[in-house]
Amino acid sequence: MPWGVLWEVPWKAFFSDAFYGSLHNVLMMAAIIFPVMMVLEIGRDLRVLDRITVFVAPALRLLGLSRQATFPLLVGIIFGIAYGAGVIIEAARSGEISWRDLFLVNLFLSTCHAVIEDTALFIAVGADPWIILGGRFLLAVILTCLVSRMAWLNARLPITSAK
C-alpha cells in the first residue's frame, strides 16, 4: 500500500465509527447478558434446577457424572465456558462436586459449550444448525462416556465428593 493512501483515509470518521460501533456492541451484549444472568440466579434461588435434575439424572449417569454436576454442566452448555467457569470454580471451592465430576464436566464442555450463542453465530454464516449442534453434542457425549469409564480416571479421581 503506497504511503499516500494512508493520508487519504478519513481517520476522524474511522475512529468515530469504531468507537460508537464498539459502544453499541457492548451495550447490546449487556442488554442480553444481564437479564440472562438474573433469570439464571432467580431460577437457582427458586430451585428450578433441582426439578430439572430429576429429568437429567439418567443422562448424567450415562456420562458417569453425579447429580452435583448438573448445574455447572447445564450452565456451561447453555451460557458458555466464561460464565460456566465461574460456576465450576464456585462448585469446586465449596466442595459440592467431586474432582472426578469436575474433570468430566470440563471434558464435556471443552467440546460442547455455549450451544445457543455458537449455533446462532454459525446459522448467521449459513451453516446447518442441526449438524453443528448435533455433531458437537454427540462428540462430547462419546468422549465423556469413554473417559468416564477409564480405569486411570477412577483410580486417580474417585467418585466421592471433594469435601
Short description:
The protein has 163 residues and is mainly alpha-helical. It is 80% helix and 0% strand. It folds into two domains: 1-46; 53-163, no CATH class.
What secondary-structure arrangement, pairings included, does this model have?
Blueprint: H1 3-8, H2 11-45, H3 48-63, H4 70-79, H5 81-94, H6 99-111, H7 115-124, H8 129-148, H9 151-156
Helix pairs in contact: 4-5, 4-6, 6-8
- Determine Rg (CA atoms, Å): 21 Å
Q: Characterize the largest beta sheet: strand count, sense, and whether it forms a barrel.
A: none
Task: Please state roughly what percent of the residues sit in beta strands, choosing from under 5%, 5-15%, 15-25%, 25-35%, 35-45% or over 45%.
Answer: under 5%
Q: How many angstroms does the end-to-end distance come to?
A: 62 Å
Order of helices and strands, N to C? HHHHHHHHH
Helices, by number, come to 9
Average the pLDDT over all residues and give the rounded result. 81
Count of individual domains:
2
Q: Unreliable runs, pLDDT <50, ≥5 residues?
A: none
Per DSSP E runs of 2 or more residues, the count of β-strands stands at: 0
What general form does the structure show? elongated
Main structural class: mainly alpha
Proportion in helices = over 70%
